[in-house]
Amino acid sequence: MTAQSSTSAQLSPVTLLGLGPMGIALAEALLAQGHPLTVWNRTPEKADPLVAKGARLAATVADAVGVSPLTLVCLKDYETLYEIFADRPSSDALQGRVLVNLNSGTPAQAHAALAWATERDASYLDGAIMVPPYLVGQPGAVFLYSGSQDVFEQHRTTLTSMGDPRHLGADPSLAVLYNTALLEMMYATLNGFLHATALVGSANVPAAEFAELACGWFMPTVVNPSLGEHASDLDAGHYPGDAGTMEMNLNALEHITRASVEQGVHAEQPRLMQQLAERAIADGHGTDNYLSLYEVFKKAD
C-alpha cells in the first residue's frame, strides 16, 4: 500500500516531529500505510525524500501540530521535546491533541512529561521503539506504550502502522522503564558474549567458530529456556538449591576470573560477577540457587 492508496482518506492524519534515522523510518512506514503525514525538522532538507513520497513539510512546530489530531515526537530526549515547544504558538497548538513521545529517558522524566502535557491540555502517551530503524513497519517490530488506555485504543490503528503496539499500563513511566530494562539485558548479554569470545580468542579460537556453539546452541538451548521457566520463582522468592547452590556457582565464577587473568584478558567483568555471588552468600543465600542473586539486585546497595 502506498501513500497514494485509495484508503488514505480513511486513515487518520499524523504529524511527526524529528527526522533522524528513526524518524525517517517512522515516516516511511506511515506513508506506506497511506496516512496523510505532516513532518517537521530543524533541518528541513531532511524531509525532501519524504515530501517526494507524499508527506507535507510544515514550516513551524505549531503548523505541524495544528493539522493532525496525533503528533509523534522522535527526538533525542525530553529536554529537546520541551525546547521545540518553548514558544507560545507551539505550546498552544497542543491543546486538545494527542502527543506520543518516542524519546528515551528515565521514569521520572516520563512522569514529568505527562504533567507538562496535561498543563497544556494535551493527552499524552510515552513510548519506546524496541527495534532499529530498518525493522520499523516490519513483522516483529515491537513498540511499547504507557499512559491512558483510552488514548492508546483511540489511536491503535495509527500506532500499528509502525509496528506491533504493546500497551503496558496507565503508569506513564512503564514504557521507558521496560525499554531501560531490556537495553540493560541487551548490553549485559553483549558484554558476556564479547568477553567469552575474548577468552577463547586468547587460544586463537576464531570468533565465528565460537559463535556457532555459543549462539547456535548454548544460548537457545541452555540459557534462554532456563530464564523463562524460572521467572515465576523470582516472583515467589523460591530458590531451591537442589540442582546447584550459590556456593557451587561461586566456585565456577572464581575459575572464570582466574582463567581470564591467566589468559591475559580483561578480568573486571567476571570479578564483578564473583563479588555479587559473594554478596549473595553473605546475605544468606549460599545454599539457594543462582537466581537468588535477584534478591541482591532488588536492593539499592
Mind explaining what this structure looks like?
This protein has 14 helices and eight strands. The protein has helices at 21-32, 48-52, 61-66, 78-84, 88-93, 107-119, 149-154, 156-160, 174-201, 207-229, 231-236, 246-263, 268-285, 293-297, and strands spanning 14-17, 37-40, 56-57, 70-73, 98-101, 123-129, 142-147, 164-167. It has an eight-stranded mixed sheet with strand order 3-2-1-4-5-6-7-8, sandwiched between helices. Strand 2, helix 2 (48-52) and strand 3 form a beta-alpha-beta unit. Mean pLDDT is 95; it is low at 1-9.
Describe this protein with a few key phrases.
single chain, 301 residues, alpha/beta
Give me the secondary-structure topology.
Elements: E1 14-17, H1 21-32, E2 37-40, H2 48-52, E3 56-57, H3 61-66, E4 70-73, H4 78-84, H5 88-93, E5 98-101, H6 107-119, E6 123-129, E7 142-147, H7 149-154, H8 156-160, E8 164-167, H9 174-201, H10 207-229, H11 231-236, H12 246-263, H13 268-285, H14 293-297
Parallel strand pairs: 1-2, 1-4, 2-3, 4-5, 5-6, 7-8
Antiparallel strand pairs: 6-7
Helix pairs in contact: 9-10, 12-13
